[in-house]
Specification:
The complex is a heterotrimer of chains A (about 250), B (about 50) and C (about 230). Chain A has about 250 residues and is mainly α. Chain A is about 80% helix and about 0% strand. Chain A has one domain. The longest helix of chain A has about 30 residues. Chain A is globular. Chain B has about 50 residues and is mainly alpha-helical. Chain B contains one helix and no strands. Chain C is an all-alpha fold. Classes of the chains: A mainly alpha (about 250), B mainly alpha (about 50), C mainly alpha (about 230). At the B-C interface, helix 1 of B face helix 2, helix 3 and helix 6 of C.
């Protein structure tokens, strides 16, 4: 039927057709892994509700410490939000590989004609979506609880949250796979993840604060932070993509 | 060399404590490993790995 | 005990240390603002530079291990990380001791020290992963992955913490040795050489220990095979 396109196009200097096709195939496989994880989550509802309630609880507890009724949420709020998001995110990364332990699904995953890197990307996507769902529900709730205008800042806030969530999930997915195979993985995961993600946390709080107060997030120091976060995302998604096979092999 | 001498003194000496402490732990570990290796070689009744 | 035939590096380290000590207390000029307590700099800053080198060696060894799967790279990586952690601890302990008389407080969240603290946490993660992973092959692989990821993070951590602090320069122009008066620069260089020799010396002791532990593991495996064979027969 269709002969295998050569990996390298000899005639033109343009991007080889074969490589593009391979890329699309790998992306489709990654999406498949992602859809599988999200389907499991949709049917079992094991993870996202727990994350949501945990985050909500953290917000409530922090409120008692900082008294957001009287203080402006937009100053201390970003830090509180990101503590809530990151701590509940840690739940996701542990869960993503716990589900593979049941019925030894991880062997099935490895036997499938899937690159380890592809599995990583699929899991990264699924984890990011899970956390984004929680964030999307929690942010409006926090606007109600702590009385600030979310609609006015929704777009910049969405961008900030997206960039930083992906970065957090980039390392979280890798370390989650590692932690699933170690003793005390539940403790190891946050230790590894938070120490490596410090730059991202700083950036998240700074840019979220800028977004909430209506400053431009693309200009000035916020722009620099956002740029750094994007670089962080690219560097660590690449590094994790390349090293995931070493973590997941038996 | 005067005011703040205690700080200088402690900074300097803590470095020695840390390094010597590490060397001591290395020594203990080495001895323990050697003892275990000797015991296992006896049990296996062989010359051991090259 | 520790291999007695290797006296070269320990002797070299001792000689360099003595020279640096002399230079620190008698040769280097007295700093105008801080006085003699500034001399802590000569055993604080070089430790920071060499700990960075140690983690770079871990980075290279980790990549080498993941590519070649040769155990020696894992041993080198682990040794370098341990020694790097000792050096990092030196930085983290001497820093506050220096900060107290100079700035009145032990910890100021200054960019370099904060980065060092995060570095300490990341590489402690490396050691914890090793401790909590049972399978030795997995242990080596996981540690190598952390050795790579952790080091990639270092410049990013440094930049972000510096920006967070608002680019405030340190009170004393430190680091590369630029802006230092000649006697100070010479002493600083000697400090770097001494810590370099110390690193090499500690590596020369730690790596054979790693090899011995690997031999021990192999022997244990043989012993348990022998026992199970006996039981089976």
């Amino acid at each position: 039927m269709n002969a295998r396109a050569p990996a390298v196009s000899i005639e033109s200097g343009a991007v080889p057709v074969g490589a593009l096709r391979a890329l699309r195939r790998e992306a489709a496989k990654a999406l498949l892994v992602c859809r599988k994880d999200l389907a499991i989550e949709w049917r079992s509802l094991d993870n996202v509700p727990a994350m949501f309630f945990f985050s909500l609880l953290l917000l409530v507890i922090f409120n008692f410490g900082f008294d957001f009724a009287n203080a402006d949420f937009r100053t201390l709020g970003p830090a509180v939000l990101w503590v809530a998001f990151s701590f509940s995110g840690v739940l996701t990364f542990g869960h993503a590989f716990a589900i593979e332990r049941d019925g030894d699904c991880i062997s099935g995953l490895m036997l499938a004609p899937l690159d380890a890197g592809t599995v990583y990307l699929g899991k990264l996507l699924a984890n990011s979506i899970s956390i984004l769902i929680v964030e999307a529900t929690l942010l409006p709730l926090s606007a109600v609880l702590f009385d600030y205008d979310l609609a006015a800042v929704a777009a910049p806030l969405a961008l900030v949250v997206l960039v930083h969530t992906i970065g957090f999930a980039a390392n979280g997915t890798l370390f989650g796979a590692m932690a699933a195979r170690t003793r005390r993985g539940d403790v190891l995961l946050p230790i590894l993840l938070f120490s490596v993600s410090v730059p991202l946390m700083i950036s998240a709080v700074k840019t979220t604060a800028a977004a909430l107060t209506g400053e431009s997030i693309l200009a000035g120091s916020s722009g620099a932070w956002l740029m750094m976060a994007s670089i962080f995302d690219v560097v660590f998604i690449t590094a994790a993509y390349l090293t995931f096979e070493f973590v997941i092999e038996e | 060399m005067e005011q703040h001498f205690p700080f200088l003194f402690w900074a300097y000496n803590i470095i020695w404590f840390l390094i010597c402490g590490y060397l001591l732990t290395l020594g203990f570990r080495q001895r323990r490993v050697e003892r275990e290796v000797a015991r296992l070689k006896r049990t296996l009744g062989m010359g051991g790995p090259a | 005990m520790l291999d007695a035939s290797r006296f070269g590096l320990p002797v070299l380290t001792t000689v360099l240390a003595v020279i640096t000590l002399y230079m620190t207390f008698f040769y280097a000029a007295r700093e105008k603002v801080m006085g003699d307590v500034q001399r802590i700099f000569y055993f604080h800053a070089p430790a920071g530079l060499i700990c960075f080198l140690a983690f770079f060696v871990t980075f290279v060894a980790s990549i080498a291990y993941l590519v070649t799967r040769k155990k020696k790279w894992d041993i080198i990586g682990q040794a370098s990380t341990e020694i790097g952690l000792v050096l990092t601890s030196i930085v983290l302990v001497t820093g506050p001791i220096w900060a107290r008389p100079v700035w009145g407080t032990y910890w100021t969240w200054e960019a370099r020290l904060t980065t060092t603290m995060i570095l300490w946490l990341i590489y402690m993660g490396y050691m914890l992963v090793r401790r909590y992973t049972d399978d030795p092959d997995q242990q080596a692989r996981f540690a190598a992955v952390i050795g790579v990821i952790g080091f990639l993070d270092v410049p990013i951590v440094y930049w972000s913490v510096s920006w967070w602090r608002g680019h405030h320069p340190l009170v004393l122009k430190v680091s590369g040795g630029e802006g230092l008066e000649p006697t100070m620069r010479a002493t600083f260089m000697m400090g770097i050489l001494t810590y370099l020799a110390l690193y090499a010396c500690l590596m020369s002791m730690r790596v054979p220990l790693g090899r011995a532990e690997e031999d021990l593991r192999w022997l244990r495996q043989r012993a348990s095979e022998k026992t199970s064979r006996k039981v089976g027969s």
